[in-house]
Design a protein that fits this description.
The chain is mostly beta strands. The protein is built from four helices and 25 strands. Strand 7 and strand 8 form a beta hairpin.
Length: 402
């Protein structure tokens, strides 16, 4: 499997080398935008080691539209503003001016196992990875106006309206049964997600955090390796976009993901006032399901949780599953009390015992999950969640001009 994967990777790199110039400055690319009215990230594949300037911009022929670009390893990222018209666009890459204060800045806190993410100087979130908390997580997640979109308890240390499920720590990744280890709740079989290393980047287009983790059972025996990457895009405060990629590798032997509803490869607990039960929240999915009863355990390309916050108005969070994810479309462990989790393994409960969701990952093999998180102002309709999903599932096609 590894040999085949390496061959495919080298073939892709070779094709890129044929299509892409060795030096980016002065090169041209086209981009087809299907619809206008939304801020849309896009990516061009580049060959690692390509000559580049410290700062790059793309300028559109004819209109003079200029957007910043960001080179990271094999990818060149940019963001089209919402005012970009639908249709085909041609851009030429030019040198930009280096900025000592990147638009998206990721910084490690002094003497703490935490990294802050700021966009335009405003805090968006922080990544916490102190092992004593069993698993790393993001908290807070701030929407427009600096309002907390996820539950602050227990992370804040202050009491909130709810104190149930102490393992629901704002925004996290977990599953309740991997080789018998419980990585979801604090049970007798509770395991540990040990963070081995964390890397980060800042830039004009996005900031990123990559965490290399080892999931260990209650006796600290390694069970599986995980590589988790968050990408935080420089989008407006009323439409924050964050991509999450989670890759599991069975390094230590076969790894069985057991069939349990207690899990979510990405999971979050909504602000108490955005709950469906006891709050103003409303659950909606891509399949038209509305409310917990209709949405729980059902597959859907996206799930949205929106409501109204006093003093701020309508706010919501959407989790979108990529068609590239393992077992797309994912099933949703979404509850009226504020939980929303993307669970690809809990079939027994979701189908009343008619199906089994176990999956054994053979030693040396990997599976990958990709999601986009959309923190928005307005409800699912006003925030055009369906349109933003189109941008994620079928991003604008960018091609090099030879």
């Amino acid at each position: 499997m590894r040999t085949v994967g390496l061959t495919i990777f080298l073939a892709v790199i070779s094709l890129c080398a044929l299509a892409q110039p060795a030096k980016l400055e002065g090169s041209t690319f086209t981009l087809d935008l299907a619809e206008s009215g939304r801020t849309v990230p896009f990516t061009l594949t580049v060959v690692p080691g390509t000559a580049e300037s410290p700062a790059l911009i793309a300028e559109e022929e004819g209109t003079g539209l200029t957007i910043p670009l960001q080179m990271t390893h094999w990818r060149l990222d940019g963001i089209l503003p919402a005012t970009t018209l639908a249709g085909k666009h041609t851009f030429t890459i030019k040198p930009g001016k280096p900025d000592d204060s990147p638009a998206v800045q990721v910084t490690k806190r002094d003497k703490q196992s935490a990294m802050d993410v700021r966009i335009g100087g405003e805090l968006l979130t922080a990544y916490h990875f102190d092992e004593k908390e069993h698993k790393p997580y993001l908290w807070p997640l701030l929407g427009e106006g600096g309002v907390s979109m996820t539950r602050d308890w227990p992370s804040s240390g202050k009491d909130g309206k709810t104190k149930d499920h102490p393992h629901h720590v704002s925004f996290w990744t977990a599953h309740g049964d991997v080789n018998g280890g419980d990585f979801w709740q604090f049970s007798e079989q509770a395991g540990w997600q040990s963070v081995g290393s964390v890397q980060s980047i800042s830039g004009p287009v996005m900031g990123a955090i990559t965490s290399h983790d080892v999931w260990k059972d209650k006796d600290r025996k390694p069970v599986i390796d995980e590589e988790r990457t968050y990408r935080f895009f420089n989008t407006p405060a009323n439409a924050r976009l964050m991509d999450v990629e989670v890759k599991f590798t069975a390094t230590y032997g076969d790894a069985k993901f057991g069939d349990t509803k207690e899990g979510g490869i990405v999971s979050l607990r909504m602000n108490d006032d955005l709950r469906e039960t006891g709050g103003t929240g409303k659950i909606t999915t891509s399949e038209g399901a509305v409310g917990e009863k209709a949405a729980w355990g059902k597959p859907a390309a996206w799930c949205d949780y929106s409501g109204t916050l006093e003093g701020f108005g309508a706010r919501g969070i959407t989790v979108m599953d990529s068609p590239r994810s393992f077992r797309y479309p994912v099933h949703w462990h979404v509850r009226g009390y504020g939980l929303m989790g993307a669970n690809p393994f809990g079939y027994h409960d979701f189908y009343s015992g008619a199906k089994n969701g176990d999956h054994t990952l053979p030693k040396g093999e990997s599976i990958t999950f990709s999601y986009r998180i959309y923190l928005h102002t307005g409800d699912a309709a006003a925030a055009d969640v369906a349109g933003h999903y189109k941008d994620f599932a079928s991003p604008p096609v960018a091609k090099w001009v030879e």
